[in-house]
Amino acid sequence: MSQVVIVYHSGYGHTQRIAECMAEASGAQLIAINPEGQLLDTDWEILAAADAIIFGAPTYMGSPSWQFKRFSEASSKPWFKQLWLDKVFGGFTVSASLNGDKQVSLISMQTLASQHGGIWVSLGMLPSNHSAATRQDINNLGGSVGLLIQAPSDAGADAIPQGDIETARRYACRIASIADRLRS
Amino acid sequence: MSQVVIVYHSGYGHTQRIAECMAEASGAQLIAINPEGQLLDTDWEILAAADAIIFGAPTYMGSPSWQFKRFSEASSKPWFKQLWLDKVFGGFTVSASLNGDKQVSLISMQTLASQHGGIWVSLGMLPSNHSAATRQDINNLGGSVGLLIQAPSDAGADAIPQGDIETARRYACRIASIADRLRS
Amino acid sequence: MSQVVIVYHSGYGHTQRIAECMAEASGAQLIAINPEGQLLDTDWEILAAADAIIFGAPTYMGSPSWQFKRFSEASSKPWFKQLWLDKVFGGFTVSASLNGDKQVSLISMQTLASQHGGIWVSLGMLPSNHSAATRQDINNLGGSVGLLIQAPSDAGADAIPQGDIETARRYACRIASIADRLRS
Amino acid sequence: MSQVVIVYHSGYGHTQRIAECMAEASGAQLIAINPEGQLLDTDWEILAAADAIIFGAPTYMGSPSWQFKRFSEASSKPWFKQLWLDKVFGGFTVSASLNGDKQVSLISMQTLASQHGGIWVSLGMLPSNHSAATRQDINNLGGSVGLLIQAPSDAGADAIPQGDIETARRYACRIASIADRLRS
């Protein structure tokens, strides 16, 4: 079995809830980036040993939170030794708007994974976008590069629609499955 | 008064409907890219004389339609003479999914405008993303770089929510107003 | 052994030269998109049977050529049947400028691969960017998401620097190797 | 005369040098983001009063530095009051590679400006990309959305080619000139 690690920063609990759902579904390990954008030394060892790394962060003002960015820059240390080369990567982001420039965050995460020489796993689920579609459907937001999550600006993490939650669970399992195939 | 021109390609009528609503609201002139991705010679003269150019195209497979792309490449002729330098630009795109990689289309349009040395006008409307928000609200999709329009995959142009229509009308007026200010 | 297919559009021969170098190095099969943006029926069958697909196109006015875009839209047919789901993907683009918005083309290609539910292989080579670096070095342009190729605007395909050629050869082999690992 | 403000974060002095050259050429005011990603209260007042804001940051691991990102998030305060609506914006980024994913940083900056409802000024200079082109030419990197600056990874800010410096100076003047036209 491959080892999947979700490394995330959560501002108000939405990103954390999604990370936990993904971990529960896939058996992934969780690493939380702290409010100063830092990890423990042991966290870096876990990341170095991982087969797959999933990035998670809220989208604030059009890109991932600064704490996530600070972590990204600290990853120049494993980059220098090419420790993450050929690892499997995926990513997700949360914001209050249906669109809300979340795509720009995914492009940023996908670029980070590419700088590390990674292999990026797309969402791999058809969009639910017909007339009867609701926010309770799998991939109702219609993402493709990675996982998009939305909850209203005046609500907590429990307001994330069940469809987004289930999309998150499936994406985590998909990444784990690709990592398994690459490992074998 | 500045001259605003909307140059668009429409596959199934959605982009055309939005273009017409924007023209009606702002007094902009319409130029349709034909099914082969071509314009009339007189259309190029109208574009050369415009103060502002608004790009419109559906998002198909993650970027603007090939007919719009063919038009973009034909614009290398005015680019060569720098005829569009310092013009005002904006853009919009339509797809069936709430997200549907529409942002990638806007990035592509904004890049085209930048290659011409243009001045890009953002949407300039706050997103409607609270718990009571509906698709009837202004900027419910939460765009920022340009205008995002969505209608279900199994429905025609008349299924575009009124909120998206009104957002389109206001964006056209906003672009005209910035063009007026730059012209004076 | 996995089957790698390079599907490309070439305007002036640069993209074709790179495609041929990549095929020679990796044993990949070549499919040329014709000047009308079309493929043969048998080409679509080859793509459906491929383990890995590499996209290639010049960057014109900030995004891949319209012929490549037309091919992208025709790929909605295999998309409808999810024939390319879980395939391995990579991409490259050519333009006359060192930057020249090539990144926007790669984002577009990576988004297309993601719409198909693909697995994207990054370039995976460190940039050569120290004081003594030259255009004869591996990854001198400093790409990461995919392969960047540059040749002057007033020169033919034989002016592509040897460093870019060698980067292309290695990227093709890298994609084939990842496809092999996923297949086994 | 319009008031142009350059707000930048510099890690090793390259971004600062460019910011200073731009200020000298255009009469812009400089605001440095500190190593913790913070500004003085008076800096926010200067930004609120500005006609044009130019963003500057190095590209680290594929996006602007975390200090710049922290500043971006702090700008949600003026965003909340829409204090930057209709301001003129531009941006620049520095990295060691010719490409180095600088475009992703510009997309991020342009998105930030758009979230504020801004008007984005493209570089507006033709690329120098013929066979005799050198790094001493105006826009030799071939940027369009904003300003791209490159200096080798093992060299200081004084190794930035004169062509990039002159491109920076002209871009600052261009932004000031557009701001003047909009103000009048």
Can you describe this structure?
4 copies of one chain form a homotetramer. The first copy, chain A, has helices at 14-26, 41-49, 66-74, 76-80, 102-115, 162-183, and strands at 4-8, 29-32, 52-60, 63-64, 88-95, 119-121, 147-150. Chain A contains 6 helices and 7 strands. In chain A, strands 1, 2, 3, 4, 5, 6 and 7 form a 7-stranded mixed sheet that branches. Chain A is an alpha/beta fold. Chain A has one domain (4-183): Rossmann fold.
- Uncertain regions spanning at least 5 consecutive residues of chain A: none
The two chains with the largest interface, and their residue counts, are:
A-B, 28 and 29 residues
- Main β-sheet of chain A, in a few words? 7 strands, mixed
Order of helices and strands of chain A: EHEHEEHHEHEEH
Going by CATH, the architecture of chain A would be: 3-Layer(aba) Sandwich
Q: Please state the structural category of chain A.
A: alpha/beta
| The top level CATH class name of chain A | Alpha Beta
What overall form of chain A do the CA principal axes indicate?
Answer: globular
Count up the domains of chain A.
1
Figure out the total of helices of chain A: 6
Helix content of chain A: 25-40%
Instruction: Write down how many β-strands of chain A occur, each being a DSSP E stretch of 2 or more residues.
Output: 7
Give the helix/strand layout.
Four copies of one chain form a homotetramer.
Chain A: E1 4-8, H1 14-26, E2 29-32, H2 41-49, E3 52-60, E4 63-64, H3 66-74, H4 76-80, E5 88-95, H5 102-115, E6 119-121, E7 147-150, H6 162-183
Parallel strand pairs in A: 1-2, 1-3, 3-5, 5-6, 5-7
Antiparallel strand pairs in A: 3-4
